[in-house]
Amino acid sequence: MGEFKHFVIVKFKEGVAIEDLIKGMGKMVSQIDAVKHFEWGQDIESPEMLRQGYTHAFLMTFNSKEDFVAFQGHPNHVEFSATFSAAIEKLVLLDFPSTLVKPPPATATA
Amino acid sequence: MGEFKHFVIVKFKEGVAIEDLIKGMGKMVSQIDAVKHFEWGQDIESPEMLRQGYTHAFLMTFNSKEDFVAFQGHPNHVEFSATFSAAIEKLVLLDFPSTLVKPPPATATA
After folding, report:
1. Chains A, B: CB contacts under 8 A, how many?
2. Complex confidence, ipTM
């Protein structure tokens, strides 16, 4: 228990070099030990109406809220955030302690 | 590789019994083997402006897009979705193959 999530969904401005931005995010994350887990994706499935224009989701996992706070204040994150903010048309951001209802099966099959 | 994600963020209508709904979702998920992993959270941290009124995030993970499609068509999911839809004021839904940039450390520390 106690994992903390930082969840961001965005719509980028037109003409933005999205791949470069995501590479930059990966680099930033790799430089900050507090980030335990980082994954992202581009929607390819949900109906346009339900997607509401958002196209990309970014999900970071931390061991604790304290690690998340450390991440937020990290100079590399602050610097990247300025670049990222300039590239997005809209976003939603949710930060929360995660409740695990169905854990992945233990990888006991060797 | 090849994990597939189903991310939903919502704002519930006023007066909705949110806890009951989330329990119902947990039950539905537990009945459908295709769902590999399910977790959720209620935002407690991000600034209201960035949260845009959304309060809850639901994250489901599948082994493949095929498992996600099976989930979507499962009668228990179809039934639950009708109840869920009636309770929400707004939502965003993103479905995508996940790209893992920073995997969690191997749990080699026994």
Report:
1. 133
2. 0.86
